[in-house]
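hey so u asked for the seq, here:
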Amino acid sequence: MLERIRSGKLIEGPEYATERYLEGLKRTLIVSADTELISAPAYFRAAQDAPNINAYISATGIIQDELGHAHIAYRLLRDLGVDTDALVFERDPKDFKHPYAFDVPLETWTELVVANAFYDRAGFVLLGDVYRHTSYAPWKRALVKVDREENFHLRHGERWMEILAQDPDKKSELQRAVDWMFVLTLEWFGLPDSLKRHTDQIAYGLKGLTNDQLRQEWMKTAVPLCERLGLRVPAHYEPDLGQYVIDVPFPAEFDAERKQWLFEKGPITWDQVLARWKARGPANEELVKAIQRGYEQIRKSLEA
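ran it, structure tokens below
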């Protein structure tokens, strides 16, 4: 099967794949599905702070897109034999596989649009890479729609950041959001290549770039955006290296309640980061339960 993948041929269904390939595909799809699903209640929470009705409608449109993206990934998992009802509605909140960033509550319109510019950009980078390189044909076809909508989401964030940056008071608020969300998005891409597990992902054509390469891809557009708007970010382009360099200890300790990085304590280990991710953040249970509670209410109403 590896020879088939290396020749550029696609896998059309589970009947043509090995168990090892399917294991890696399911693991990748669960992360994607959980991320899209949890972004919906996370964004909806902050959308309540929209400055006007048109902004609120734009935000809810993005939320609907995210739910659609989650449905695509869960449907592909169901076709692979996964019990998706149990996966979504019966799992412990801490067992969801979305990035830690969504466990830190988004509370204002400013934080929401920075999330669109940063988090959706991360989604665009990650899923764009999958779209270009995946060897699983059903997912490749489905990602045509997802890729275009994620591009709209990040453009929405960019446009609103430009608007807010013109108001001195709002620009200060924007800077505070950038200060904690920029590094949290750098974490989004996972362990550095030197510590990466599941290396089958590239060999099996489930992705094309490594974690460190994807982190660089994100910074290539996120850093210039912030620089253009006069916002400080802890990273810069180093011409001699031909890449972006992070200017603060990374990874570092993060105070999720205060939304503040403790860079003065110096770098921490990735094992410590993994422990924080595993313990989950302050909004984890609230967001997952919001989805699971809705399902339970519908089930009871249908039984009545």
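Residues 118 and 222 are 7 Å apart (CA to CA). The chain has eleven helices and four strands.
lmk if thats what u needed
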